[in-house]
Structure prediction request, 349 residues.
Amino acid sequence: MKRNDPSPGCLRDLGEFGFIEHVKRRFGGPARPGEVGIGDDGAVLRSPPGKVVLSTDLLVEGTHFDLRYFLPQELGWRALMANLSDLAAMGASPVCYLVALAAPPDTPLPFLDGVFRGMSSAARLSGIRLVGGDTCRGEKIVLSLTVMGKVASRRVVRRTGARPGDLLFVTGEPGWSRLGLRLLAGGRPRDPKGWRREAMRRHLCPVARWREGTLAARCGAVSAMIDLSDGLLPDLSHLLERGGMGAVLDERAFRISARFRKAASELREDPVAAFLAGGEDYELLMSVRPQRYEAFRRAARRFPAGAFPIGVVTKGAGVRLRRADGSWTEGAGLPAGFRHFAAGGGRAS
Ligand code: ADP
Ligand code: MG
Prediction:
């Protein structure tokens, strides 16, 4: 996206208020009786029953995203999905969001429109409403989203509830986003098909697992939950570290599809390393009480992305991985690829 082109439609031409009016008209959440959306000093909502969950995220151009890879719609989509993923990981369902935006005055309106369209499509999918925000000029694009969700009082799921013996499950197939990033690093394919299309979509337009998150919370069997932003292994350690616990993972249980393996092999990535240590998939990792497994299984049948076992929580710290050939890997002995991955590097956000 060239920001310096002198085309007529840029932020400066509309001005801050013109732009807010435009956002309100095109993207503002539907006003419900007794509520106030965009246009006043603050948004007013009816308080939902139960508890409110709030989360915010800051995206800075050059630090968290690169406009060479992302179309504006994808940037907006991904920004809202990342926030929805945080709500999902608490077991909360989406209610409303606010958007704070800084942008240079010469930012083309089609670009900003694209970002809002992306957020708006993600919002439509989840039923969340845009109720306010803030707009100002800045030297580069900074996008900060705040989301609000609701959850029944006793259904909040935190990162800290896991106990030894709990079963570990992950939604979907983590690692795709990493494969997508690898693919894009070699240049954005024009008309991708098959695994290329899948990998690109998973990186650029991930879908947050709020349905899975709320169903998981409601079934009462999930003791802890976290969304995968750093990668399965690093996020697993966040789930375990407070209690000084560890885990045994079983490679043979991992759901790694033929298409995923093909993508990994074409991109010269180790599929198991991508699965365990890729990042930004926004899948959910959850621990499940074994005695409530039946309730979990019933709930998981309704997860659009499914839930797949990866291992169990153990008393002793550290993660041990049983490889497909029966050998064991652990700690510093985990293949170098895992640690290399875990260190990240070159991520788009
Ligand atoms: P204030 O001066 O109180 O900050 P503003 O003039 O910035 O008010 O905002 C006017 C209204 O427009 C408010 O309801 C605010 O929430 C909304 N708004 C401003 N910027 C955005 C934005 N980027 N996205 C959505 N709503 C916005
Ligand atoms: Mg303001």
The two ends are 18 Å apart (CA to CA). The chain has two domains: 11-151, 167-333. The pocket of adenosine-5'-diphosphate (ligand 1) is lined by residues 20, 23, 38-41, 99, 101, 130, 132-135 (CB under 6 Å).
